[in-house]
Amino acid sequence: MESLMDCKFTFDYGPENPPTSAIFGPNYMAAKMYQCCQTEDLELGKMMLRPSGLFLEDLAKESLLTEEKFGTVKRVFVVCEKDGLFDEDFQRWLIENSQTKEVELILGADHMVMLSKPQEFFLSLQKIVQKHC
After folding, report:
1. What phi, psi does 47 have (nearest 5°)?
2. What does pLDDT average to in each consecutive run of 10 residues of the chain (133 residues)?
3. 81 in helix, strand or coil?
4. Helix (H, G, I), strand (E, B), or coil: what is residue 76?
5. What is the rounded CA–CA span in Å between residue 95 and residue 112?
6. pTM above 0.85, yes or no
């Protein structure tokens, strides 16, 4: 729980049940999400922050990534890596369990790739579109 720093959780069904929503704390955002961004981006992110539902009950029921539910959309996973600051095991699990067709890598980007490496992100998306359309 120490890694969650100042994040706050809501337990709508009581503290003995899983959390139902979360909101990132400002210290967590600065250290884990916007660490490669300008101060202005962090401050804007903090201003726009809202609680987010976790939907843990729904996620536990069945896989949401099925051919019936998503059709034939080709999935491309964009891996953003900066100085090894990413959860390689979790990203590998996501790639293997989401029927990913291709993986793009953006080096030097943090979690907020659209802020830390916007040009590289745009070029990756453009490459994906050109390849698959």
Report:
1. -70, -35
2. 86 93 94 85 93 83 68 80 67 83 86 86 93 79
3. strand
4. strand
5. 19
6. no
